[in-house]
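Form P-L/3: holo structure prediction, ligand acetyl coenzyme *A.
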Amino acid sequence: MMARGRIVGTGSTTPRRILTNKELESIVDTSDEWITRRTGIKERRISSNGRGENTSDMATTASLKALQMAGISPETLDMIVVGTVTPDRQFPSAACFVQKALDAGKAMAFDVSAGCSGFLYALSIANNAIGTGNCKNALVIGAERLSGITNWEDRNTCVLLGDGAGAVVLTPSTEPDGILSTHLRSDGNLWDLLYSFDERSKIPDFLDTIETKPFFLKMEGNRLFKKAVSCLAKIAVRALEYHGLSCDSVKLMVPHQANLRIIRAVAERLDIPMDRVYTNIEKYGNTSSATIPIALDEANREGLLKPDDYVLLVTFGAGLTWGASVVRWSP
Ligand code: ACO
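OUTPUT (holo model):
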């Protein structure tokens, strides 16, 4: 029987600095009331330059927690793959910096760029490598420092984004558990709904510890919102039907955290009650590739995931890219 990846450890981290909606009121024309009502976000975490909170630093911290939970040492890793659109440098990859920090000499290491869907794309690649026998132990990470690519003068986007990282450790399983499948889609025709614009953002004085990149994110939020809801709902159904499962079988849906209203609309379309949907967007905002592994780690550490539970991961992001993964939680 072909093996598949089983999640044996999860870990996550976010920077110490909390940026509240109230603070944002002092830099753009917005209000705590508007942000909370339209997005569900109350606060987000912001990395500080020089505090060891770069993308690969956060990825390493999250990975160490996941490896500790898994009881696996870094030198046994065959693959390190990071979903990110904000690596420390254009190259080498964030994954290579993680490899160095972990001293994981045996692993192949590389990044995957798929917008907010980066973690699910990375998970799929690692799972397939385990399935073909090319790889045994894999570390899959979603890590972002979006504060460095935020336009701090644009109220349409700066209220949404945050920094953080999450990681999972996969080992092979021949039992009927683990990553059962991942369905991935993309549509490059819609690239201009969310893209990087070549201009450096001006930083407000009180956020001067942010290190900016020479581009920032531009988004057409309203069109993206509608597209997100329909794509997420459709791919979730396709992924479940592939295994002969219904939405009733889903013990916990862990969606990409872009907007609480998107999450609620998808849950409603799937007829999954919100008490079976994990959300933490109020604390972290949208951390792109990091939202799902952070949420998965928090749900796991809160004891919400039991052996044999079906967990549905759904994501959506720049590209456009989107996807869904069905996981049967492992003992
Ligand atoms: N504070 C106050 N008012 C605001 C703010 C703000 N922060 N932002 C926008 N507004 C205003 C607009 O200017 C507009 O005013 P107008 O009617 O006078 O023109 C009004 O609010 C309504 O704007 P909409 O864009 O229609 O507001 P909407 O309800 O769609 O919410 C939002 C905007 C939150 C961006 C939403 O569209 C959204 O979440 N879209 C999807 C985002 C997403 O999924 N992104 C993908 C991932 S992001 C990534 O990859 C990193």
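COMMENT: Residues 30, 34-35, 38-39, 115-116, 155-156, 159, 161, 194, 219, 221-222, 224-225, 228, 258-259, 262, 286, 288, 317-318 surround acetyl coenzyme *A (CB under 6 Å).
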